[in-house]
Structure to design on (436 residues):
């Protein structure tokens, strides 16, 4: 019988704190009104520091909520059906259908009680799959004021950096004035500046944590990272997120120094491009029976985090503006200029180089192969997927593509997914471990 090497492993010491921070956020959404806090909703990829100038607020990010609901088919399917009954087809964003379905049913997943009606919707026009129109539905259905700011992708590739930046900065100035008008609150620039510093720091720390998973054995596995990621996405403008990410970063470094693995039997490292099928996260645990460790996904490395892709193909942690020698932030104009510059240098908003990003993280994470997700829940995400596959193969990485839906369990054939993954692993010479 083949002897399988085992690494020491243990649960993260900060795991319980992570669970508390995520649940605390979602419960704050339910109780925001009674506590006198503003409830703001919108795209979670927006800059959550912008509403901070209004005072205490909680942000209901549509995508993370839709993902959480997707994990529970008993709630997700009725929500999907409620959205579809109102004309939202099954090829539309799965996150959006879970979110809107919850609103139509007047049920909030975390309490089972009434849907929390937002005071305003504020966010960026981010995804071609309809995110800009997502919150128009709230405006029409619940009468919620809605402001959406545009964001041209790419800073320098067409040689028109300054006009692009001025265009977005002007929209953010208008957006702040709009928020003052619809809420009746006076905007505090100092609160914006403080929240922005937290925002930049949290994104940089999460990006660093993701890149630390290059270590062998990997100190984290993707399934665990998916549970940690909401802190860097939903609370990145808060001091508690900075403090948690510093704790997490330090603990991950300690795990690396002591050879502590996320998967004790790690012998095959895989990376991916996208969110997972949230209703089928158990596939990660099943594949651990083969010694497989998913070490990261590009989308959440650069969506809720920030890294820098260099011209030589390497990827390194990002550095917050105040540590890079950027002009100091003294007032609102400085704050918005710095934010827009950060946004435009953010790789998630620059899809032209998506294939090279995948190759860079595959090299950095020392993967043995890439499992790309063809996501029926986001048709726009699949554009260029075959090009990504070819780019990875040309770089020397074995690649498989599995199909499903990140937010709709009805479009996930679990048997087919596992068959595809097992066939791919067999081609890599990886078979199920004897004790699994």
């Amino acid at each position: 019988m083949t002897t399988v090497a085992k690494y020491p492993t243990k649960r993260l010491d900060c795991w319980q704190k992570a669970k508390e921070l995520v649940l605390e956020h979602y419960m704050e959404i339910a109780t925001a009104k009674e506590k006198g806090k503003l409830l703001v909703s919108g795209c979670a990829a927006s800059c959550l520091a912008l509403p901070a100038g209004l005072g205490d607020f909680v942000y209901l990010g549509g995508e993370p909520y839709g993902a959480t609901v997707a994990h529970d088919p008993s709630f997700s399917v009725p929500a999907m059906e409620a959205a579809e009954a109102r004309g939202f087809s099954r090829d539309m964003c799965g996150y959006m259908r879970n979110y809107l379905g919850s609103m139509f049913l007047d049920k909030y997943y975390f309490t089972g009680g009434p849907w929390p009606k937002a005071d305003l919707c504020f966010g960026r026009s981010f995804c071609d799959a309809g995110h800009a129109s997502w919150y128009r539905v709230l405006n029409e259905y619940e009468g919620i004021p809605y402001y959406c700011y545009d964001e041209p992708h790419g800073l320098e590739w067409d040689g028109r950096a300054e006009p692009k930046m001025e265009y977005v900065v002007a929209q953010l100035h208008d957006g702040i004035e709009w928020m003052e008008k619809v809420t009746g609150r006076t905007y505090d620039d100092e609160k914006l500046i403080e929240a922005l510093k937290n925002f930049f720091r949290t994104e940089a720390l999460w990006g660093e944590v993701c890149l630390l998973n290059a270590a062998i054995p990997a100190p984290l596995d993707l399934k665990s990272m998916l549970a940690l990621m909401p802190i860097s996405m939903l609370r990145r403008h808060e001091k508690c997120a900075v403090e948690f990410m510093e704790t997490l970063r330090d603990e991950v470094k300690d795990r690396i120094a002591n050879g502590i693995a996320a998967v004790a039997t790690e012998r095959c490292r895989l990376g991916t491009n996208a969110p997972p099928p949230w209703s089928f996260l158990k596939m990660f645990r099943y594949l651990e029976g083969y010694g497989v460790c998913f070490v990261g996904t590009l989308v959440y490395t650069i969506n809720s985090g920030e890294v820098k892709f260099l011209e030589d193909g390497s990827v390194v942690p990002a550095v917050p503006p105040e540590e890079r020698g950027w002009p100091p932030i003294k007032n609102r104009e400085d704050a918005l200029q710095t934010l827009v510059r950060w946004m435009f240098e953010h790789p998630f908003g620059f899809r032209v180089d998506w294939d090279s990003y995948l190759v860079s993280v595959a090299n950095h994470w020392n993967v043995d192969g890439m499992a790309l997700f063809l996501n029926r829940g986001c048709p726009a995400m699949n554009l260029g997927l075959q090009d990504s596959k070819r780019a990875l193969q040309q770089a020397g990485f074995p690649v498989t593509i599995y199909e499903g839906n990140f937010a709709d369990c009805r479009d996930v054939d679990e048997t087919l997914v596992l068959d595809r993954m097992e066939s791919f692993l067999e081609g890599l010479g990886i078979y199920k471990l004897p004790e699994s």
